[in-house]
Give the backbone structure.
Amino acid sequence: MLYVLIALVIGSLLTIQLGVNNTLKTSLDTPLWAAFVSFFVGAAVLFVAALIARTPLTSKIEVPVWAWTGGLLGAVYVLISIVIVDKLGAATLMCCVVTGQITASLLVDHFGWLRVPQHALSPGRILGALLLALGVYLVKRF
């Protein structure tokens, strides 16, 4: 249950991040610089945290090429969310993001992609994704 609560908190942080990054966009007059500042601050915080934790950087780096794309994917998410939050609003944007996450997660789980343990699709999981899609419609429409 603790992990569920932590996940709910970090989910709410994504919504707060939308507002923070939108303010950066307004202040800096460009979504690209806003995204850069967001990632620069994040990278600086992680660098300091790694130094404080004395986390060694391994000299043995054996990862698949696709595993290096996490920062790219994060940059795309942040930049696109900065650009479209004004057009959709925070609630609709986050509903769409969560629905996209769940849909992709169901596929990743079902097929065991990206070295994630397999969890088969089930009627309940599919219904959950469909209900999220309905939620997008309701939040956007009303």
About this structure: The mean pLDDT is 93.
